[in-house]
Design goal:
It contains two helices and no strands. It is rod-shaped, with a radius of gyration of 19 Å. The two termini are 34 Å apart. This is Resolvase.
Length: 68
């Protein structure tokens, strides 16, 4: 029985670590997205705007995938 409890505890710990890692990744994606939005607002070059919009959309997709 003790081994089962130990395994369950380890499983809980791994789940918590995975959740923390996901939160960290989402935060990093948010930070990257914020930086790109700032750059987008400051630029007037149409090609740069299009590229930044594409990158921002990709970051959104990545965040959604992590949230699932």
């Amino acid at each position: 029985m003790s081994m089962l409890v130990d395994a369950s505890g380890q499983s809980d710990q791994h789940a918590k670590q995975a959740k923390t890692a996901l939160k960290r990744q989402i935060t990093e994606l948010d930070n990257q997205q914020d930086a790109m939005v700032e750059r987008l607002v400051k630029t007037s070059n149409p090609k740069a705007i299009a590229a930044l919009e594409t990158k921002i959309a990709k970051l959104d997709e990545d965040k959604l995938r992590l949230g699932d």
